Amino acid sequence: MITAIYPGTYDPVTNGHVDVIARAAGIFDRVVVGVVGNPQHKQPMFSLDERVAFLEAALADQENVEVDRFSELVVDFARKWDAKVIVKGLRVISDFEWEFQMNHLNRTLAPDVETVYVMASPQYSFVSSSGVKEIAAFGGKVDELVPEPVARRFAELFPQGRPGAPVSPQE
User: Fold this and answer.
1) 152 in active site
2) C-alpha closest to that of 117 among 150, 86, 162
């Protein structure tokens, strides 16, 4: 049995994540979606429990997919599950640059664990968790970008959206 892990913050899970997970589940015997408890490089909007619940709801029909929490190194999480593969989704070139660096670090720590990249389906190549959060915060509709429980939670959090307009990072 070949087990793969798909680690991430999933803050929140998007339909792009679900697409990559479903496709990975068609390749590997078991896929364990690992939700980072306390990411070092960002502050999550949603609690760990919410992020896990969103994933469990979105993946309920995937029989060979499990959701777990982790706070250790990704390679240690892979070893915990006896996984031989780390799955990573790629949307754009900038994703590749970051993942290329992470791959080399992970291979240094665990040469026996391979990383497999799954390209985003075209309809999700522009969808990111940060983009979805910004759209929702300003009252935009995210129903086609995220699973239903996530869209519902955004509607609760931002019923009217917040005033002002998003500012471009270049400004």
Assistant:
1) no
2) 86
Q: How confident is the model at residue 166 (pLDDT cuts 50, 70, 90)?
A: low
Q: What is the pLDDT of residue 42?
A: 83
Among residues 68, 71, 80, which one has the least CA distance to residue 36? Answer: 71
Q: Where are the beta strands (DSSP E) in the chain?
A: 3-8, 30-36, 65-70, 85-90, 114-119
Q: Can you name the residues that pair with 36 across neighbouring β-strands?
A: 70
CB neighbourhood size of 135 (10 A): 19
Residue 34, pLDDT above cutoff 70: yes
Smallest CA-to-CA distance from 74 within 52, 44, 99 is with: 99
**Choice among 30, 51, 88, 129 that is catalytic:** 129
* Residue 91 designated active-site: yes
Query: What pTM, to 2 d.p., does this model score?
Result: 0.90
Q: In whole angstroms, what is the distance from residue 136 CA to residue 157 CA? A: 9
Higher pLDDT, 138 or 160: 138
Q: Is 130 helix (H, G, I), strand (E, B) or coil?
A: helix
In the residue annotation, 104 being an active-site residue is answered as no
Two structure tokens written together for 89: 């989704």
DSSP structural state of residue 159: S
Q: Quick check: is 71 catalytic?
A: no
Catalytic residue among 79, 80, 84, 91: 91
Task: Look at residue 93 in the predicted model and tell me its pLDDT.
Answer: 80
